[in-house]
Amino acid sequence: MTPTKYNLPTIVFHWITAVAVIGLFALGLWMVDLGYYDAWYQQAPDIHRSIGILLAVLIVVRLLWQKASASPPPLPNHKPWERVSAKVTHWLLYGLVLAICISGYFISTAKGQAVEVFNWFSVPALVTSIDNLEDTSGLIHEICAFAVIGLTVLHAGAALKHHFIDRDRTLLHMFGK
């Protein structure tokens, strides 16, 4: 049976991911300008890393859930180019967010330190012997982060276009309606 709307876990995964991605981007932009004597100099990166690790886990769980559960088909009024661009955008978003998480992990562990996730658990440093790992990963992290925000704006704009111009149910599906 083909569903007519997204199930609750899919909706929850979507919105938690959206809030985390936008929040991490804002936090990242803010924290790079913190001075050594700023009260948040240590705390902001710790929060950023912790949420980033949890986001990586969420994305993997989300992809597994997506594979195991059915999604509603595209609406009949969706043009072929819209269907293709939606699929490409979604897969780019998944890939880029994972690239951001992996590069962030490499930035954080390049000198051999584990990543502490809210003092709940540690993620050990697995790769430390690559020259310039921290710098290269930092560049990848930044480029991918801006690309994700650009695609997020495109994604949200497309949803709003479907809602206000096409007047279809695309956006409502992600609210469980």
Give a verbal description of the structure:
The protein has 177 residues and is mainly α. It has one domain. It is 66% helix and 3% strand. It is built from 5 helices and 2 strands; from the N terminus they run αααββαα. The chain has a two-stranded antiparallel ribbon with strand order 1-2. A hairpin with a 3-residue loop joins strand 1 (115-117) and strand 2 (121-123). Helix 1 (8-31) packs antiparallel against helix 2 (43-68). The radius of gyration is 18 Å and the shape is elongated. The mean pLDDT is 94.
Q: Mind telling me the C-alpha Rg?
A: 18 Å
User: In what range is the share of β-strand residues?
Assistant: under 5%
Order of helices and strands: HHHEEHH
- Give helix % range: 55-70%
Terminal Cα separation, in Å? 18 Å
Would you spell out the secondary-structure blueprint of this structure?
Elements: H1 8-31, H2 43-68, H3 80-109, E1 115-117, E2 121-123, H4 133-165, H5 170-173
Antiparallel strand pairs: 1-2
List keywords for this structure.
177 residues, mainly alpha
Summary of the model, kept short:
The chain is mainly alpha-helical and 177 residues long. Helix content is 66%, strand content 3%. It has helices spanning 8-31, 43-68, 80-109, 133-165, 170-173; strands at residues 115-117, 121-123.
